[in-house]
């Protein structure tokens, strides 16, 4: 288990450096320096013990006209990292020559090999460096970061991911509403559920496994999935990671993470997944994502609608309301899934029930159910994320469900499966899913049995016919108004009934409506099919109200206590 105290110590050391920026920078701009410098310090620590060997490699290639990408491959083969800095110096070396720190550091950040160069360019860090030089603060900033220990020996890949996410959260958490970095224990649960069954095809010898995250952030979901696959099949050599994210800082960190893992950063893209699909037409074996919660897609609307109206588009099921784009990201995953792919996506409660029959949300749920794509939904505890305390849900989907899950959906209520976040809460994150709780949830999924925490329903259980019930318009004599012999409906008396798909509409109408309004009829042409998943309803437990005598006794006790307090206060006022 990760030591949260160690993470906090490293994060605090970095955030204290922000004080050195005060004056030249306003607080909302601190991240423009802190985030890139944290990334560069990680690279610096990784290369520190390898620079001597890299220097010799560069010397061999010095007389040859060789593409720098080939040199990166040579460095990877000899040193285990797919990047280098041509200067072969560390932060400590740079501050050792304080008189020339400005020129030397500028040369240093422009001397990285192509993989890192692209990250620095994306963060516009050269411009920030020039500004720090102008304001005379560069030396102090570099010196402070040289004291931060991001060496692999003390800060492994998993811990570094947490540290990066905490740093980004500290300086960018308010930049985008709905942007929630996913706690690693939630990622672990997503991956365990996704790979808990029906993954024999991934174990086939020679099978190349492609993993995709359309909102990859700092790469946590991709790296955890790769590690889990390594544990499952004994190797990660056949695993390839692909991702895209719209946040430039998160994208840069993700590229850094991929480089550390020896992954090809050309498979990671920066841009809006909804409007700039850099992996169009690609198919993947495992797909996992945590899209932004409840964020409107108004600015993307025109492009999304244009794709929706084209052939082979990702949004075949429908478009949700413009105030929440979560179900667009779900459709993106479905469009990119191989025929035997496994999918995990984290959503808030809105996609379960928002939207009436015929709405975009309902039509997307209908598409998922009628195409037998949903395996399970797991309700997580609230207060699991750093930026929000709301409840969230893991959806597990597959295009090739096992026989026992065919046309079935499992609901797992895990809202009480948590420990308190220790030693203290992290923003809104006050709860933690321990390995024991995670295994319990995964076992509930594997068992596929009904109990207190698990319910199983047919896919049609969540569907209904929304039927329009008409009543006749009456004249002054109380007679039905006819037009060409047809009864005319009174719009003011119009009503609707949601009739479960499993029920016969006419039989329901005769049983539930006609006994109360015998002159009513159904307008069949207005019938719409809807789908919703009222999750909490299925796990609701009735709690009887307290007895009135018990409540009265408590009220009397409270009144007596108040009376004694007032008497004491009056007594003090009279006898000071």
Description:
The chain starts with a helix and ends with a helix. It is of the alpha/beta class and 576 residues long. Strands 3-2-1-4-5-7-6-8-11 form a nine-stranded mixed beta sheet, sandwiched between helices. Strands 12, 15, 16 and 17 form a four-stranded antiparallel beta sheet that branches. Strands 9-10 form a two-stranded antiparallel sheet. Helix 6 packs antiparallel against helix 8 (125-135). It folds into three domains: 4-168; 173-461, Rossmann fold; 546-576. It has helices at 4-17, 31-48, 51-61, 68-79, 91-96, 101-109, 114-122, 125-135, 138-146, 157-172, 184-194, 220-233, 248-261, 301-308, 326-335, 350-353, 360-370, 435-447, 505-512, 535-538, 548-574; strands at residues 209-213, 239-245, 268-270, 284-289, 337-348, 374-379, 392-398, 408-413, 419-420, 431-432, 454-458, 463-470, 482-483, 486-487, 495-500, 521-522, 528-531. The chain is globular. Helices cover 41% and strands 15% of the residues. It is built from 21 helices and 17 strands.
């Amino acid at each position: 288990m990760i030591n949260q105290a160690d993470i906090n110590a490293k994060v605090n050391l970095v955030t204290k450096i922000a004080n050195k920026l005060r004056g030249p920078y306003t607080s909302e701009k601190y991240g423009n320096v802190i985030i890139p410098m944290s990334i560069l310090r990680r690279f610096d620590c990784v290369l520190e013990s390898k620079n001597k060997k890299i220097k010799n490699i560069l010397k061999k290639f010095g007389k040859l006209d060789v593409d720098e990408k080939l040199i990166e491959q040579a460095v990877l083969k000899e040193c285990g990292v797919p990047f280098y800095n041509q200067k072969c110096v560390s932060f400590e070396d740079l501050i050792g020559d304080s008189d020339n720190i400005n020129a030397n550091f500028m040369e240093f950040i422009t001397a990285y090999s192509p993989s890192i160069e692209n990250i620095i360019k994306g963060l516009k860090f050269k411009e920030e460096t020039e500004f720090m030089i102008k304001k005379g603060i560069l030396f102090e900033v570099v010196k402070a970061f040289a004291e931060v220990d991001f060496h692999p020996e003390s800060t492994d890949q998993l811990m570094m991911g947490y540290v990066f996410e905490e740093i980004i959260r500290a300086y960018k958490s308010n930049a985008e509403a709905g942007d929630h970095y996913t706690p690693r224990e939630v990622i672990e649960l997503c991956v365990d559920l996704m790979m808990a069954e029906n993954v024999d095809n991934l174990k086939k010898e020679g099978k190349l496994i492609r993993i995709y995250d359309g909102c990859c952030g700092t790469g946590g979901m991709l790296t955890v999935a790769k590690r889990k696959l390594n544990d499952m099949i004994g190797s990660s050599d056949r695993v390839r990671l692909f991702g895209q994210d719209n946040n430039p800082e998160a994208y840069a960190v993700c590229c850094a993470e991929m480089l550390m893992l020896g992954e090809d950063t050309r498979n990671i893209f920066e841009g809006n997944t909804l409007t700039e699909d850099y992996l169009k037409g690609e198919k993947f074996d495992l797909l996992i994502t945590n899209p932004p919660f409840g964020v409107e897609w108004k600015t993307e609307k025109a492009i999304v609608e244009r794709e929706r109206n084209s052939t082979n588009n990702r949004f075949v099921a429908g478009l949700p309301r413009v105030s929440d784009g979560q179900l667009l990201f779900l459709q993106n995953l479905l469009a990119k899934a191989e025929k035997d792919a496994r999918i995990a996506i984290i959503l808030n409660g809105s996609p379960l029930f928002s939207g009436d029959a015929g709405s975009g949300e309902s039509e997307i749920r209908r598409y998922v159910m009628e195409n037998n794509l949903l395996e399970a939904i797991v309700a997580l505890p609230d207060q699991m994320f750093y930026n929000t305390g709301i409840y969230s849900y893991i959806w597990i989907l597959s295009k090739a469900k096992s026989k026992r899950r065919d046309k079935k959906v499992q609901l797992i209520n895990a809202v009480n499966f948590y420990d308190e976040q220790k030693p203290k809460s992290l923003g809104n994150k006050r709860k933690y899913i321990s390995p024991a709780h995670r295994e319990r949830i995964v076992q509930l999924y594997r068992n596929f049995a009904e109990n207190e925490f698990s319910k199983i329903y047919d896919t049609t259980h969540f569907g209904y016919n929304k039927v329009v019930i008409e009543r006749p318009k009456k004249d002054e004599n109380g007679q039905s108004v006819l037009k060409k012999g047809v009864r005319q409906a009174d719009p003011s008396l119009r009503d609707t009934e949601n009739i479960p798909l499993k029920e016969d509409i006419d039989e329901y109408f005769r049983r539930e409506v006609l006994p109360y309004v015998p002159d009513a009829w159904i307008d069949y042409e207005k019938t719409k099919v809807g789908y919703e998943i009222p999750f909490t309803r299925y796990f609701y437990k009735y709690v009887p109200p307290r007895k009135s005598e018990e409540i009265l006794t408590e009220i009397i006790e409270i009144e007596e206590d108040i009376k004694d307090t007032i008497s004491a206060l009056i007594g003090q006022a009279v006898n000071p």
